[in-house]
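__Protein archive entry__

___
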Amino acid sequence: MLLYLAVCGKSIPGDGFPDPAEALLARFTRLPEWHALRRMPTMAPPAIRTDQLTRTYRLPKKRWGKSPKTDTPAEFTALDGVTLEVRPGELFGLLGPNGAGKTTLIKILTTLLAPTAGTAHVDGLDVVSQADLIRPRINMVSGGESSGYGILNVRENLWLFARIYGVPTATAYSRIDHMLGVVGLAENAGSRVSHLSTGQRQKMNFCRGFITDPRILFLDEPTLGLDVTSARAIRTFIRGWMREHTERTLLLTTHYMAEADELCDRLAIIDRGKVLACDSPANLKKQVQRYPIYELSLAPGENGWADLGKLPGVHQSLTTTTPTTVELKVVLQEEPVIGAVVQRLVTSGGHILALKKVEPTLEDVFIELVGHGLSDPAERLPPSNTPA
């Protein structure tokens, strides 16, 4: 009613009474709720959105010199109805085994590959009909990619990529010097790309993704092939780069669980072209741990641990004996039961050397959802002639 009067209220000319709209608005703007409404941020559209995104590949019926197999399917589905939404300013991760569809998804989002069905939007633009408008706003780094021109040195290659994006020369050189310092490649700035090691080329590729200052950045295995120190420096830089401008968005694929856990605001676990789960790393880990788990190290001997499984509130008790300790893992129905466990051990003459709570990891989540780890040899790979 207040809003209706504020918009539609009219005063009769010459009636001597104040305008009701002005009077009501004046009263409303003095309320605390008005200032709270003014401080509320507007809902920005998703930086990345896919709806039932699907990509299939036709498989050859007959390979050269080989007889066709009757049981071979005619098509391979790399993406199967993927629906995702990445918010502006978010560092979003994709986890999945080889052949899960991660790279195919990134290629579609970066306008390098057309979807078979469904839609995908980047920065509010359609990846098929508005690809030319999307490309100046994004950039991509792919791990293991052999990009660059071998006859040019590192600085010349990066300058060339920057100029293709329209970055002024002075700005380009400033960003190039900064990025080479970040990845520890400043001493190799004048070296030809053909003379670089695999790790050094990967560092140059990483620099290439940032010198254009993209609004949305896609990093596909950015630390692949890098040593521990370089990978840590890159993760530190990524966090700082995201904090500098809150409107920046980054989509990351990685095989390193710790890297995804450390960097990502939210994660999507994808396998065989389908999204199995999507949430923050903390919430995903909560989903797989139904019971609190504790690990205890005891001095060897009879310490009262044999009957712990019969203690009320203990769901399961597992024991491993070593020459120097007794390693005990107890699964509890409730967290406070650990007090009763410790009391039982102490009163039975046990000597507790160490006690710690076991927190679930992203690898636990992954195995729970996918059925195997990232390095499991049993994982199903796509046919050799289809992209991952």
In short: Residues 228-244 form the longest helix (17 residues). Residues 214 and 306 are 60 Å apart (CA to CA). Residues 1-18, 32-42, 377-388 have pLDDT under 50 and may be disordered. The two ends are 58 Å apart (CA to CA).
